[in-house]
Amino acid sequence: AQTVTQSQPEMSVQEAETVTLSCTYDTSESDYYLFWYKQPPSRQMILVIRQEAYKQQNATENRFSVNFQKAAKSFSLKISDSQLGDAAMYFCAYRKSNSGYALNFGKGTSLLVTP
Amino acid sequence: DAMVIQNPRYQVTQFGKPVTLSCSQTLNHNVMYWYQQKSSQAPKLLFHYYDKDFNNEADTPDNFQSRRPNTSFCFLDIRSPGLGDAAMYLCATSRDGIRRSPLHFGNGTRLTVT
User: Fold this and answer.
1) pLDDT tens sequence across A27-82
2) Sign of the torsion formed by the C-alpha atoms of B7, B62, B98 and A86
3) I need a surface site. Which of A1, A7, A50, B21 has the fewest CB within 10 A?
4) CB contact under 8 A, B42 and A50
């Protein structure tokens, strides 16, 4: 089974600064998808950004970008110009391309944003 | 706004007393999922429906069942809840089976077992 590891249970960043959340995964597949989801306190989980493994270019969505290192099986999320509304639990997730629907999540990183 | 709605937000049940959690969606998505999320753990997929086709994860306990009477609704039935079943239960949908389709989540139902 594919495993997703988020080694930082908690992170803190000051408003307007940049923070990077790390994620590594273990797979023998060559084609797959990677996602970052955000879960604010008492609110629903929403998609932040996604990356297709066959694309070398790193995905970017406004202030959110990823550093995808396929050989190293690393998929970190960079949040630039952090805002108070970015405070949430962030989950890294993996999905195989060729079979199954399961989205395998990491345990999450709790991000605190300080004024 | 189109969305995924879970009711209730908080559910308390007694040990061994059957409980049903509900999920509805206005997105008209083909696929609906149930995830279990325990404290400080990753969400874990229990099962999913592609239209009316039910797919159970291999390690989902028999105590957990699901129904999808129509496109919009999906239910999670826990036949005999144990203390270990206390968790947040997340319903999610995706448009289709294309792997890049993102999941849309509801707010979750937090289940307490007394």
Assistant:
1) 888 888 999 999 998 788 999 999 998 888 999 999 999 999 999 999 999 999 99
2) positive
3) A1
4) no
Among the listed residues B100, B51, B30, B32, the one whose alpha carbon sits nearest the alpha carbon of residue A97 = B100
- The chain A residue lying nearest B92, using CA atoms, is A45
Ranges assigned E (strand) in A1-115: 3-5, 10-14, 19-21, 24-26, 32-39, 46-52, 60-61, 64-69, 74-79, 88-96, 104-105, 109-114
**A33–B100 CB contact, under 8 Å:** yes
Q: Looking at the partner chain, which of A9, A33, A101 has a beta carbon nearest the beta carbon of B48?
A: A101
In this complex, the residue of A33, A45, A105 whose CB is nearest that of residue B99 is A33
The answer to whether A91 contacts B43, with C-beta atoms less than 8 Å apart, is yes
Task: Using an 8 Å CB-CB cutoff, list chain A residues near B42.
Answer: 4, 91, 104-108
Convert the pLDDT of each residue in B33-56 to its tens digit: 999 999 878 899 999 998 999 988
Task: Scan for tokens 């969305």, then name that residue.
Answer: B3
- pLDDT tier at A103, thresholds 50, 70, 90: confident
Q: Residues of B with CB below 8 A from A42's CB?
A: 107
CB B72 within 8 A of CB B49: no
A contacts of B105 (beta carbons < 8 Å): 37, 44-46
Q: What is the pLDDT of residues A10-27, one digit of tens each?
A: 999 999 999 999 999 998
